[in-house]
Amino acid sequence: MKKLYEGKAKEVFETEVENEYIIRYKDTATAGNGEKKAEIDGKGELNLKITTIIFEMLQKAGIKTHYIETLNAHDMKVKKVEILPLEVIVRNISAGSFAKRYGVEEGIVFENPTFELSYKNDELGDPLMCEDHAIALKLITKDEYDYIRKETLKINELLKEFFIKINLKLVDFKIEFGKDSNGNILLADEISPDTCRLWDKDTNAKLDKDIFRRDLGSLTEGYEEVLKRMQK
Ligand code: TMP
Which of the listed residues 36, 89, 124 should we mutate to test ligand 1's pocket, taking the one with most ligand atoms within 8 A of CB? Predict the structure, then answer.
């Protein structure tokens, strides 16, 4: 297979089938735009398993995604899409860059979820981007923005409901969308504890990548706990 792209946590390969890619989940963990980096045995496998369960759940609920099937412990077969250069972030509870930017504590529960975009550009440090700027730069049209916002808030409701059943609070998350050859916008990339903040409902213990970002203990133990609850 020809490697088309290698990112911080995944590799993308072309297949013999037109319109299909293989995504390989790596064991690399990074934080702070790659400033902190480590190889963590088993992380890729855990994220692939968790993402698979989530994409299957979302597809059943009617969300259009790039997911086709998971082939083995490392590889996911997906529909070929052109990833939009936007990180789409939803927050239900204050944490991370939100708490830092506004000088507030983590853990403030919002009445309504917040929706934000970042421009995917490592050199610029993925700056926050408002709707008008994304449209002015022709990264998306107004209609695409409206669709992405509506779909994302629907995804938030489905994920919140899914996680609370297993005693996890969905604090915030980042998703990415891609466009297929027919111009359809599909949910793409991954949804895992690398890209979500998940706190235990009773203890607020962190079961996501903040374990690595903040040196809070074993990352794989946290991710294994998430997977175990999901498989129940
Ligand atoms: P933040 O608080 O650092 O802005 O992160 C918000 C959410 O987005 C959090 O769940 C982690 C996720 N995220 C990513 O998956 N990739 C990224 O590059 C960033 C900045 C955040």
Answer: 89
Cα(122)–Cα(31) distance, integer angstroms: 12
Q: How would you label 73-101 residue by residue, b for 16+ Cβ within 10 Å and e otherwise?
A: ebbbbbbbbebbbbbbbbbbbbbeebbee
Summarised one tens digit per residue, pLDDT across range 163-204 is 999 999 999 999 999 999 999 999 999 999 999 999 999 999
The arithmetic mean of pLDDT across residues 55-77, rounded, is 98
Give residues (CB < 6 A) around ligand 1.
89, 95-98, 126, 172-174, 195-197
Q: How far is the CA of 98 from the centre of ligand 1 (A)?
A: 10
Give the pair of three-digit tokens for residue 54.
Answer: 């989530």
Contact (CB, 8 A) for 230 and 50: yes
